[in-house]
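Researcher: Here's a chain I'd like modeled. Treat it as a single chain, no partners, no ligands.
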Amino acid sequence: MPLADPISAAWNTVARFDDYESAQRAVDRLSDDGFPVEKLDIVGSGLRLVERVTGRLTSSRAATAGALSGLWAGLLFGILLGLFTSGHSFLAVAATGAALGVLWGAAFGFVAHARTRGQRDFSSVRQLVATRYDLIAREGTVERARYMLGEAGLLPEPGPAQDAER
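Model: Modeled as a single isolated chain. Structure tokens:
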């Protein structure tokens, strides 16, 4: 029977998991049992982009976010410059760097949001998520890994799609 995915067929798939935590738990158990885990890979497939909307973005919020980012960048720059000073001037240089960072960050945040002209008035966090995770073994260790996971009760039951691939 032809395989649905020839690339996966070339891999030595120990097991397929529906979530990353299950694949991680399997590798951790194999590690605990003395398996050479450096011969394993966890490969995520079926990638999706998930964008979680975290809130409304206004000009003032964009400026505030820019100011906070600028604070850290300015403080870091001020501390680095302050290393070449002595005494109380170190604190003055660090504080000046932080203040300038806040001002520039707020300005850049405000301008960047204004340039969108209302096309993106929300903030969000993006994340790539896989729909399945294959645990792959190299160098002839696939059967040993399957056996050890089966003994530990961590080998998932094969579904119809997995049966067709084997």
